[in-house]
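Q: Predict the bound structure with S-adenosylmethionine.
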Amino acid sequence: MRVRLPGGPLDLLRPADPDAVAFDPVAVDEGVEELHPPHWARLWPSGRALAGALAGADPGLLAGRAVLELGCGLGLPSLVAARAGADPVLATDRSAAAVGWVAASARRAGLRVGTAVAAFSPAEDALTGRTWDLVLAADVLYGAAAATALTGLLPRVTAPGGQVWLADPGRPEASRWLDAVRDTWTVTTRALPDGVALHVLRRRP
Ligand SMILES: C[S@@+](CC[C@H](N)C(=O)[O-])C[C@H]1O[C@@H](n2cnc3c(N)ncnc32)[C@H](O)[C@@H]1O
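A: Predicted complex:
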C-alpha cells in the first residue's frame, strides 16, 4: 500500500488480507507458547498518525538519532525515521512475521531499518545494553500486561535526554498507564488525525 506522508509517500508491504493471517505463536514463558491474534498485519490509525507526525517533525528530531520502535507491526514510523536520516533504526515486535514484513518494506524502499523479534522486556537481547534517543510506539497499550511491561522497559531503553513518542487511539489502558507513570515522566499530549493522541514522554530529572 502507498501511504501519503509529509515529505512524500512511502510504500508499505503488508499481507493482502489481514483477516486471513494465521495467529502468531508467541513465547510467554520458558517452553510455553500462546497463540496471539495477528494485530500486526494491518496499519492501525495510530501507526499512520505517528508516521505522519514524524514525517512533519523538525529534522533535528531524527537526523543522526538512534531510534527504537516497540510493537512496530508493519513499521511505518521506523521507515519514516530512516528516511529522515535516523541511524540506527531498530523496529521490534514480538511477532516474527511482523518484523519480516518491515524488513521487506525497508529493503524495497532502500532504507536502513534493523529488525528484531522482541517482547516488551529488558531481558530481550535486542533491548539490552544500549539506549535510544527516540523510542516510538503506536497503539500498544491495550492490555494490562503490556502496560506493566512498558513501565519497566521504557526507562531502560530511553537515553538520558531522550524522548518517547507514544501514539494512542484513546484506549482506557493508555490513560490509566499515563496517570501511573507521571512520577517518572513528564507527558505532553497533542491531537493527531483520526482521533489519535500523541503523548511525548521525557524523563523527569
Ligand atoms: C494494535 S497493533 C499496532 C501495530 C502498529 N504499531 C500500528 O500502529 O500499526 C499492536 C502491536 O504491538 C505488538 N505487541 C503487543 N504486545 C506486545 C508485547 N508485549 N511485546 C512486543 N510487541 C507487542 C503486536 O504484535 C502488534 O504488532
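A: Residues 39-40, 43-44, 46-47, 71-74, 93-95, 98, 119-120, 138-140, 146, 149 surround S-adenosylmethionine (CB under 6 Å).
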